Each structure stands twice: as C-alpha cells, then as structure tokens.
Amino acid sequence: MELRRGLVQLFTKALGLVAAPVRSLGRRGWFPVVREPFTGAWQQNLEITAETSLTYSAVFACVTLIASDIAKLGLRLVQVDDFGVWTETTSPAFSPVLKTPNRYQNRIQFITSWMMSKLIHGNTYVLKERDQRGIVVALYVLDPTRVTPMIATNGEVFYELKRDDLATLATDQAVVVPAREIIHDKMVPLYHPLVGVSPIHACGVAALQGLAIQNNATAFFRNGSQPSGILTTPLALDNAQAADLKERWDTNHTGEKAGTVALLSHGMTYEQMTVNAADAQLIEQLQWSATTVCSCFHIQPYMISIGDPPPYANIEPLTIQYYSQCLQEKIEHLEICLDEGLELPKPYGTEFNLDDLMRMDSVSKNQAAATAISSGGMSIDEARKKYFDLGPIPGGHTPYMQQQYWPIDQLATRTIPAVPDAPAAAVPVEDDAPATPDELTRAQEKAMTIYAAA
After folding, report:
1. CA dihedral of 342, 346, 352, 354, whole degrees rounded to 10
2. Rounded distance, CA 36 to CA 265, Å?
3. What pTM does this model have?
4. What is the pLDDT of residue 221?
C-alpha cells in the first residue's frame, strides 16, 4: 500500500498536476472549523464546535439515534435475477469485507463510525485496503479532521491523508491518494461538491443556547434556588463598608446557607434582580432549543423524549415517517457508496434489511401474513420467513389462490349455456269413465319422472 501511494505522488509530480486543497478554492473560500455566533465570540470562548454541540443532550440523542438505527440493519450482498428481483447471495470475494470490514471493528461498529463521522463532521472518508488481486479486503473510517480533498489542475480528485495508525498510515508525512482509493460519503454539500455540511452547522446556535440555559440553571440551583439580588439602604456607605456588607451576606446567605433567615437593620432591604425560572419560561426555551435541533436532523421531537408522541395505536406509520424523512436518503447513499467503493460487478449489489427497522405488533403481523398468503402475493414459506422468522414446511413453497377467481377478459368472452325449458307434464287421455285415485297417482308419478329425466 505504501508503494502504491508513493507511486501516486511521483505520478502526480511527473504530470505536473498541482493539487490544491478544496477549502482554498473559490472566491468565498471555505468556512473555518471554528464558527462564531457573533463577533468576538471566539475571544470569549463561545465558539461553536462539534465537540461543544455534542455536550447538548438533544444533539447527542439525534446523532446516536440515527447512527444506531442504521447500524442495526442487516447488511447483505444481493444479486438481481432476470426478472429484476434482488435476492441475498454470497461471494468469496465480497461477502467477507461486508461481514468484517476491518481487524478492529465488526459490521455494527463500522457502520456506526461511518454515520457518526457523517452526522458530526458532514463527511465520511473510508480508506480501502486491497489484496494482490485488487479486491477490497478491508475498509477503514478515517478521522475527517485529518483528511483534505484536493483537486488537480486537470480536474482529478485526490485526498491528502495524515497519520492514522489504525488505518495503517504510520507515517508522519502526508500521503496523497487518488479518489478511487477513498469512499467519500457527504452529508449536504451546500458550498462545494466535495465538502459536506453537518446538521450541527444549522443547529449549533440552538445547542449553544440550550447549554447556556442549563449552565444558568445549574448556577441557580447551586445557589439554593434563590435568584440574585441587591441590598439597598438609605444610609451612605463607603467602599469598605459596602465590601464588608457584601462579604458577610455572601458568607451567611448564599451557597449551602442559602434560604437562611436574614436580619436587616438601618432601613436595609433586599430586591430581587434576576427573574425566576417560571418568569423566564425556562422549560419552554429548553424545549424550543431541542425542537430546533430535531428539525435540523429531520427527527420528530418525541423520538428523543421531547413532547408527547402522536396518539397512534400502531407504531408502524410512525416508523415509516421516520424512515422516509430521515433515514432513507442516508441508507440509499450508504448502499451506493458501498456498491461503487467495493467495485461490485453486475449483478451484485449491497442492501440493508429494512425489516429490522419496521417491526410490527403481533396482530398486524398476523393480518399481513394472512393477506399476503390469501392474495397469492407470497407463498407460505415466504410469509413464515418474513413475518415469523420460521423455516419452510412441506408444500409451502408455492403460492395458492382460490379457484373462483377468473381473468376479466375470460369472463367477458365466455359463452353462457342456455337454460333448457321445463317439459310439459303428461296429461292422461280422458275417456268416458272417470279416472280412479290410483290411476291419477300413477300418472303424476310418471310425469315427475319424465321431468326429472329431462
């Protein structure tokens, strides 16, 4: 691998390709790592960084929820048949790296690191390791702060990598590799196609506000839940007397001694200077900050215990909404990145198992299985596997339909047989002598026999 990277650098210099960092391109340049919510905030240690924003509970909850929900989905190698149907398969060349991406992470840890980097920094850089056949046998998620996208004068894309021992980059000198050796998954490239932007870019101020409210509340409760105030007196006090009075008040009536009885004399009064939590609408402000964070991550607030969930008896519609608004785009991107990064030939591809996300209750599961089997959409074995995680049974591999269902075109062109007319009953010939009762009975029975035979 080191030899290959060295050859890339020599090849770049030989062609005279000068690769420039992406952040230095364009008239506007690129946003610095440290952003200021207002002018002078950096000097006051009030800058917005990813590390600071993650200490706010709403940001932490959104990042970990999305990353863990995607990581728990089963990742499988699939192939498409002649009918366009994707089915799970295995391959000795591609299945091992999907099961164990590298020597220190399993599949869930690897996907979690992938999504964490994307959500926090806006970019995920994955370094490929190949064998002698050129097949990718390992994938390493790099530290995004130590990777710089670069563009050569002819438009080719390279990546400058700094030391990363876990990814076998054990050199103090920066290494430049071509784009084919890096899987680059970008969050939202607002300002440059090669630079993604994290949702923290939009909700950083709300996170900083939430932290400020929490810090203020911590100081408030540390002071015995007593708001700060001022002591006033009609008497004239010099600086020494005022300082002594303040020191004695702080010693006897603040901190652990807050709330004790104070004895004021010489017309001295205490006036509250700050508003309490109810007047400042502390809870409403905290909820607004958390809701703003959720909106930037496209998560409903109730999913991180902000507010009440919708009054739905079935959780499936809520899961579908969460998938379509938040997870689907990220999952689709991840599948495409893996397909292209692993250089999977046709008919292979990668696919996440969405059934691991959209779990149904027992009643809905039974109804769905029964409907799928009775409509012929699934065989019994397919329904047993999808809804109940059960194996096949004899005769369960074939879909079944009831016989009374006919194609509409056959019903429209079929010939309806004519209904035969009922035969006339035989009437006995009248003679001069009237018929006896026995003769009438025999005549009726004969007529009914003829009618039944017809």
Report:
1. 170
2. 48
3. 0.71
4. 61
